[in-house]
Amino acid sequence: LQLVESGGALVQPGGSLRLSCAASGETLDSYGITWFRQAPGKEREGVSSISSGGGTINYADSVRGRFTISRDNTKNTVYLQMNDLKPEDTAVYSCGASMWATLTPELMNYWGQGTQVTVSS
Questions:
Q1: DSSP 3-state assignment of 77?
Q2: Labelling 15: which of 25, 32, 79, 119 has CA 20 to 30 A away?
Q3: Strand, helix or coil at 109?
């Protein structure tokens, strides 16, 4: 399974972005997918996760109410809609695949390479 993230950009505070995590090599519908982020000098943080069927969704407290995770298994893609972005959301965002809907990075079996999100005026 290969994962490729896209959609990162420079955006002003209060703006929105939609990140995509596209899979190839296997179908994504057997995997839970988690979005992580890592800012310079900080530990990797689990942002949001979604189970293989989409029935279980988790969010970190820092993004709940602003970010929405979704998946389209027909397109082999998981999305992260990010609204009301703040400077503290600046980080490299990457997606991981596992058997679970979990925010724990140690449980990931596959990783993408990441996409940069910068929130700045």
A1: strand
A2: 32
A3: coil
Tell me, what amino acid is at 19?
A: L
Residue with tokens 């999305």: 79
Beta strands in the chain, from DSSP E residues, in sequence order: 2-6, 10-11, 17-24, 32-38, 45-50, 57-59, 67-72, 77-82, 91-98, 110-111, 115-119
d(CA 100, CA 34): 9
The pLDDT, as a whole number, for residue 116 is: 98
Element (DSSP H or E) covering residue 13: none
H-run or E-run covering 92: strand 91-98
In this prediction, residue 8 carries a pLDDT of 97
Share of the chain above pLDDT 70, in %: 100
Mean pLDDT to the nearest integer, 74-79: 96
How many CA atoms lie less than 13 Å away from 89 in the CB half-sphere? 31
Widest pairwise Cα distance in the chain: 40
Q: What is the pLDDT of residue 24?
A: 92
Residue with tokens 């979704």: 70
What 8-state DSSP symbol labels residue 64?
A: B
